[in-house]
Amino acid sequence: MTIRVFIVDDHEVVRWGISSLIDAEEDLEVTGEAGSVEEALARISSARPDVALLDVRLPDGDGIQLCREIRSSYPDVYCLMLTSHSDDEALFSAILAGASGYLLKQIKLTDLVGGIRRVAAGESLLDPAVTAKVLARLRSPKDEEDPLAKLSAQERRILELVTDGKTNKQIAGEMFLAEKTVKNYVSNLLAKLGMSHRSQVAALGARLAERKRQGSEGS
Q: How many other CB atoms are found less than 10 A from the CB of residue 150?
């Protein structure tokens, strides 16, 4: 069977290169591509891929929140994250979002093709040791004090929406705020939590939600 692949990367040259590589393989076929989260969500339904190859960093969001939305709407589509940077928090977020693999763009082309085939077969490209480390962080967070204590009620709500994968524009619409105001809130969030990336905020939110769920189950 032919494995159908959907490529999401904001660089046209990268998309062209990966597409050329995939189309040269008899058992692989590119059925669609996009350069942003918005384009991907609009096109993926008609593309009907088996595997979505997602860049972690996109101009209107990130591949991790896109992965979360794809897995929620199209559970039969496997997501393979592709990034230029090794980032523990992004890897943590990718696992929570349901990604089947996380690869660096520096890998060999043959390894990328092999990775697509393995993910399409239902395998995971996530190192078991890394996955175990993530699960351990969920069960026993190092920081036992409330990381949200320094946040205002408004900032806590925005943290929840960021965790849900909402963009600044979507948060602005939901909270009846200007998009620029939301951007300022997110910047304050990052500063107060000592973080530098939106994906780190999402990972923290997911971790706290998991702790709350486990607490309610144990009571």
A: 9
Return the bridge partners of 103, or none.
Answer: 82
User: pLDDT tens across 15-73, in order?
Assistant: 999 999 998 999 999 999 999 999 999 999 999 999 999 998 888 888 888 998 999 89
Report residue 3: phi and psi, to 5°. Answer: -90, 120
Give every CB contact of residue 180 below 8 A, 6+ residues apart in sequence: none
Task: For 56, list phi and psi in degrees, rounded to 5.
Answer: -70, -35
- Four-residue CA torsion sign, 148, 150, 156, 159: negative
CA distance 64 to 56: 6
Query: Is the CA virtual torsion 191, 197, 203, 205 positive or negative?
Result: positive
Give the strand pairing for 57-58 and 61-62: antiparallel
Q: What is the largest CA-CA distance in the chain?
A: 56
What's the whole-model pTM score? 0.63
SS3 content of the chain, % helix, strand, coil (to 5): 55, 15, 30
